[in-house]
Input
Amino acid sequence: TGIQLNITEFYRST
Amino acid sequence: MLELRLVQGGLLKKVLESLKDLVNDANFDCSASGFSLQAMDSSHVALVALLLRSEGFEHYRCDRNLSLGMNLNNMAKMLKCAANDDIVTIKADDASDSVTFMFESPNQDKIADFEMKLMDIDSEHLGIPEAEFQAIVRMPSAEFARICKDLSTIGDTVVISVTKEGVKFSTRGDIGTANIVCRQNPSIDKPEEATIIEMEEPVSLTFALRYMNSFTKATPLANQVTISLSADLPVVVEYRVAEMGYIRFYLAPKIEE
Output
């Protein structure tokens, strides 16, 4: 149920 | 040259047990400030950040910054060979392709060394900004683990809602629904049993229970867990590692289709 978001959508690569 | 001596070797065993099912391979970063790791699970839904500050080690020598690529399952296998009360020393030479774990019994009558091959791991490092959270729940870690385990027998996802009344964990599945509400409980006599809720605004988010259950493998590290929530942001589930640092799990939310 629902769409699983990815963690990389929230935090940028350094 | 790297040489880190940890009297509470059992802590490192517990740290590895809490990481190894979530992450396969990871780089441990060693600098003057401490021993740290940041890694994502293979599907890039969850992220774990570990910090063990240098002051927490009995002896901490790190001549230059080093990144040690390790298979966490193999590292856990080696650390399982240490007794819970052993002193653990991690050693590596600058140019070496291996790391040595030395285990000493508390009375020094048994000394073991295990050498493990290092790996080249191409990992992506993410910048995590300091965030203000809408709600922070601190509760007994065993209670949180029990709730995640129980709810996962009913459904696949948990809705965590924080209101003035408390924190509610809800799920639904084919057989029915479940709601568990934990109210604020300062538990002055036994602070490890306290449930403390700091709420700026009510918040409600949905997460996959599979990952939450994986995070609760860190329960033996700490009596309390901190769950930090903000709308439309990953949840942060934090366990303190004694006085020396933390293990933080970040999990991206699920949104409605």
